[in-house]
Amino acid sequence: MRAVIACLWEAYNRFLEDDGWAIASHIALSTLTSMFPFLIFLTALAGFFGSKDLADQAVNLLLESWPRRVADPLGVEIHSVLTQANSGLLTVGAVLALWFSSSGIEALRVGLNRAYDTGETRPWWLLRLESIAYVLIGAVALLALTFLVVLAPVVWEVLADHVPQVAPLWQFIFVVRYGVTALVLTLALVIAHKWLPAGQRSFARILPGVALTLVLSLAFAVAFGTYLAQFARNYVSTYAGLASVMIALVFLYALASIFVFGGELNAAIARRLKQGEIR
Questions:
Q1: What are phi and psi of 49, to 5 degrees?
Q2: Disulfide engineering: 24 pairs with which of 60, 65, 204, 257, CB 3.0-4.6 Å?
């Protein structure tokens, strides 16, 4: 227990020394500004596959784990942007949207490089191409996951017709959906910690930070949602028409801080293992 507390304390101190709050602010703003280009590209990609409605459903799936007070206003703005833009604009702007949406990946890379104390030696163009590849893979994976979620009720209905005993289990399907969401989030965190920053790290060395990020993020999402249910009007009175944007930005800022702290925790554990202070 003393070793755990020591690692957490060291991670917090290094978080402050590495300007963790400023880095988290950069990640939050980059994520928010990258979200709309990413979704524009997602819509163009879905249109290429012949189903633009799939993009709307992907947005709903993407925001499903967010607190409702955060997700609902943001979802309205996203839906407005995606439905008002014509197909030609989406097609022409997809390339630019792909480039701008990769900026969010670059912000995560900066935060992790600072947390792991690693200097970047790879050329900038290679890093940008890598970030674009992550955006492409993420968009295709999100559309595929959305298609499976949309297809799930049809498959379940067919299964229930042949095996009536499973029909009552449909009420527990939300547990499966949240389980899939948690699994996808875990996979994304593992990929980010493993391959985004410079240097090499084993899967065992990144798991503590990933686990802490998951637990703290879910706890904060619940707490923030509860807080907004009582005090959301404070944001409206302070920021007026920008309230929904500011709520989303505060939410992303907290999640980014947790994400960077997870990297600092992994680095603190690695240093203590190297020094032989923990085994």
A1: -85, 0
A2: 257
Whole-structure pTM over 0.70, yes or no? yes
**Phi-psi label, residue 197: left if phi above 0, alpha if psi -120 to 50, beta otherwise:** beta
Task: State how far the alpha carbon of 146 is from the alpha carbons of 69, 140, 207, in Å.
Answer: 22, 10, 27
For 82, what's the count of Cα atoms within 13 Å in the CB-facing half-sphere? 28
Residue whose C-alpha is closest to residue 72's, from 232, 217, 230? 232
Written as one letter, the residue type at 173 is: I
- Side chain identity at 232, as an amino acid letter? A
Distance CA 225, CA 13 (A): 28
Number of residues that make up the chain: 279
pLDDT digit string (tens) for 18-42? 999 999 999 999 988 888 788 777 7
Phi, psi of 275 (to 5 degrees): -85, -5
CA distance 259 to 26: 13
